Every structure is written in C-alpha cells, then in structure tokens.
Amino acid sequence: MVKFEKDKSLKEFNTFGIDAKARYFVNITTTEELQALLQTDIFKNEKHLILGGGSNVLFLNDFEGLIIKVSLKGMEIVEQDDETISLKVAAGEVWHEVVMHCVQNNWGGIENLSLIPGTMGAAPIQNIGAYGVEIKEVIKEVEVIDLKNGAKRIIKHDECRFGYRESVFKSEWKEKYFISSVTLTLRTKRHQLNISYGAINDTLQHMHITTPSIQTISQAVVHIRQSKLPDPRVLGNAGSFFKNPTIAQEHYQLIKNINPTVPSYQTVNQEVKVPAGWLIEQCGWKGKKINEVGVHAQQALVLVNYGSGNGKEIFELSQKIIESVKEKFNITLTPEVNIIA
Asked: What are the residue numbers of the active site?
C-alpha cells in the first residue's frame, strides 16, 4: 500500500533549505512501490515532481501536487572482464557515496566527480560533470519505468542524447520515465587519469603527489570543492547556479581585448567556454547579500540562502545577475538549477 503524507515540508529535501510545502508526498524505496503508485488516484489526478537529493532544484512556491521522493538503494556488479566492470547503482544512492565506493575499490572513471551533491538517478538527467569529466563517459545504460503503464525499459547510452548538462531525460522525456537505476562501466586497471584542469595539478603538487592515482585525484577534487563551495548543511545552496556559457571565437576576442585575463576553455566545435563565475564576479556580484539571500563570497557561481530566504528572492537575484552579465558582456546566462514555479 502506498503511504502518502499531506502538506509535507520540503525544507530537508532541498539543499537551498527552502521551506516550501508539498500537497502530497510519497517516499519510494522499491520499483514495486512506484508501480503501485501509478495506479492511485492521487498520481493520476495531481501534477507530480520526482525528487532525488534536491540539490538541483529551486522551489518558488508551495508545490500544489505530488512529490515523489526517490529512495531506492543498492549497488551490484553485473558484468566484469579483465579491465572493466559494469556496476548497477540504484537511483536513490547518494552520488558521492557511489564515487567513494568505486575509488576505494580502485574502479576508475568518476574520481573527478567527487563531492558533487545529489543522487545516482539525477546524474544522467543533468549529465553531471566537473574538472574535465562528465558522467556520460561512463554510463552504459539507464533502467527506467514508464510512468504511463509501469513497464521497465533499458535506455542505452546513445539513446540518452547527452549534451552539456543536458540529456533526453531533461527534455522530451522529462515527464515520461522514472529512472530506477544506472549502470556504469568503470576501469579496474590502466586508469585513464584526467588532471587537465590546473586546479587539480596545483592541488596535487601541494599534496606532494608526483604520481597521481584515482584515489589522490579524488582527494584533490574534494579539497578543491570544500575550499570553494559552501556545505549545504551549513549554508543553503545548490552548487553552480548557472551553466558556463559557450560563445563564438569572435565574441570571445572582443571580450579579451578589453579583459586580457579572461579565463576560457576551447570546445570541440571551435567555440569558447567562459566561466560563468568569472562573468558574474566582473559584474560586482561576488559576496553581495540582499536580505537573506546572496552570492557566495568564495565562488560567484553559487547563490546562497543565509537562513530564511525564499525561492522567489533567490530567483529574483538570479534574474538581476543575468541582466547585468547580458548588459556588460552580451552573454545570456542559463540556469543550471531547475526552477520549480
């Protein structure tokens, strides 16, 4: 039997700490519970939102519908050869705990993604990435449940249509499937280490590491993130609020002519990626506080809730930032966080 809660506070279920309420709330721990939920009148008659770790959402109001909290647990090796394993991970597993499990077992491929908040099920939706690595590089397949009929289906890697912080699950399949598990292909030997980002190299040198491993790269990434990003348990935030924009070479050169030190990264299609945090900082927003919300003092890409701020205040702040970056650099920032109106 499906157990619903009414008028449930969502404060502990979103990392911004927004005290919105859900008209209905249900915690799903098995695929059977999800399939039973699909037969209920509440699911059929109410709008719904599937919620993982709540680390990438901003509630602007109370949610007048059904929140489906994903709490499926479990990890198992489903295939193995001389150099790789396939690890099936349930959607409710905490992402950083998955990374730590793999690092401890010397399974390589996701060490650069250490300490990213959220759950396994949300990772492919957003195609999470950090320090030169994206989750799409290790995803073999995604198991989903059709929200119309409860049928299970396996979505292969190529069907996911991964892009920069994008996937088919975030676009046309947004309301179609419930992700129940994700299978990753990880290396057990001859690890392909990625230390292309300068911050990782600098941190490894500071740690006196001359021969990096997946373990030391993970340690370096954790150190970097902890030094730059606030802990959501202490200061409400959702990590990077905006995507890093990609612009044409000509546009980048115009900016560089005025700002010679502008940081940038080349992309595969000859465009240039400019850090959104740098753009925001140049507009004077870093460390700025408006009432109970603001821009983090160490990382301008992170918007924060100082305690009693609400979703509308954070959203209004984000809009002011977008306007100022557009005015100064003619670049339109796009939120990475999902805005729930």
From this structure: 165, 240, 336
pTM: 0.91
- Tell whether 47 is covered by a domain: yes
Closest by CA to 54, choosing from 122, 143, 129, is 122
Residues 162 and 133: their CA atoms lie apart, in Å, by 13
Domain tally for the chain?
Answer: 3
**Looking at 187, 222, 252, which one is the last position of a domain?**
187
pLDDT score recorded for residue 269: 79
Please measure the distance between the N-terminal and C-terminal CA atoms of the chain and give it in whole angstroms: 30
Q: Which helix (H) or strand (E) holds 44?
A: helix 41-45
Residue 224: inside a domain: no
SS3 316: helix
Task: Give the model's pLDDT for residue 228.
Answer: 85
* Rounded CA Rg of the chain: 21
Burial 229-262, CB ≥16 within 10 A → b, else e: bbebeebbbbbbbbbbbbbeeebbeebeeeeeeb
3-state secondary structure labels for all residues of 140-180: EEEEEEECCCCCEEEEEHHHHCCECCECCCCCCCCCCEEEE
Dihedral of alpha carbons 112, 107, 193, 270, sign: negative
Region of 161 (left: φ > 0; alpha: ψ -120 to 50; beta: rest) is: left
CA-CA distance, 48 to 69, in Å (whole number)? Answer: 11
pLDDT at 253: 96
Give the residue ranges of the chain where pLDDT is below 50: none
Note whether 195 and 96 are within 8 A (CB): no
Indicate whether 99 and 171 sit together in one domain.
yes
What pLDDT is stored for residue 175 in this prediction?
87
